[in-house]
Amino acid sequence: MEKQKNYIVTQCYGNEGVFYECAFALLSMSRLYGDGFLSNTEVWIYTDKPEWFSRFADCPLPLHFRKMDEATITQWKGSNSFVHRLKIELLRDLVKDKQGNILYMDTDVVWTHTIDDMLVRIGSGALYMHVQEGLINDGSNPVLKKLSAFLKTSTEIKAIDPKMAAHYMWNAGVLGFNTTHGHVLEKVLALTDKIYPLYPKHVVEQFAFSYCFANKAHIKAAAPCILHYWNLKEMRQVLAAFFTHFKYTKWTELTTLASLLQPHLYMQEKAAFYQNRSIAGKLGKEKWQPIIPDWQDLLHQL
């Protein structure tokens, strides 16, 4: 039996901070695999600026670029200009002429473990999302509580499935599926386009993925292999400083240096800051800021 091809895909456009996140994610792949990256695999970056990556000409990863112009980006966001709708259209575009295993990831991720076993399971029909965030109708999460109320009261949505709120919400920062499940993307798009005009919230796209994937197969978590630091936009400041300071450093050395930047530690620091903020700090809406490392000290840690 011929081994299935793997396609790792991300979207990277607009704010340069997103490009720094993407480069950091690529470095984490290289750190885990070295020169022996996954065989029979292509990495696809959907971007408005493929030329930005020319600075990493010595990157050994099998990079491929799909240029997205402004018209395409606008079209894929749809008539309601829903930014997360673009992800669905991107994946529909990818699977049009490809067969094999798809692993989509947002740019704000770091690979922590190799994904060989995950890809094998995807090839066998498993569906992956990043991590389960909770039962929609359990009432403990304020975002999900509002979504649950909408799903339970909308006549149009109840006509589709009166028990939609009984499903689990999964984070859609990572998605894994085989192209034999490509048709599920049509259901995700249709449900997104049905709900978003009625409930224009950012969670609609990931709910559509959660619902449609769960109706196809038991969803597995990608979190044991990939960290998605979606609630740490401040990491872009650190990464901008990192890539600026080491602008002329070779990819191999960058791979080692970047391994010393641990987003999960910044996430812990940020959470502790807001938990321990004084009353004055709360009233003044004091915001947490990451400490930019001393880059020479970083070099000495190696």
Describe this structure in words.
This protein is α/β, with parallel strands linked by helices. The radius of gyration is 20 Å and the shape is globular. Helix content is 43%, strand content 16%.
SSE topology:
Layout: E1 6-12, H1 16-33, E2 41-47, E3 63-67, H2 70-77, H3 85-95, E4 101-105, E5 109-111, H4 116-123, E6 127-129, E7 132-135, H5 142-153, H6 155-160, E8 168-170, E9 174-178, H7 184-195, H8 204-214, E10 219-221, E11 226-228, H9 235-245, H10 251-258, H11 263-275, H12 279-283, H13 295-300
Parallel strand pairs: 1-2, 1-4, 2-3, 6-10
Antiparallel strand pairs: 4-9, 5-11, 6-9, 7-8
Helix pairs in contact: 1-9, 1-10, 2-3, 3-7, 7-8
Report the helical percentage.
40-55%
Query: What is the string of SSEs from the N terminus onward?
Result: EHEEHHEEHEEHHEEHHEEHHHHH
Report the uncertain regions. Answer: none
Q: Give the overall shape, derived from the CA principal axes.
A: globular
Provide key terms for this protein:
single chain, 302 residues, alpha/beta, Spore Coat Polysaccharide Biosynthesis Protein SpsA, Chain A, 2 domains, seven-stranded mixed β-sheet, 16% strand
Question: Could you give a short description of this structure?
Answer:
The chain is an alpha/beta fold.
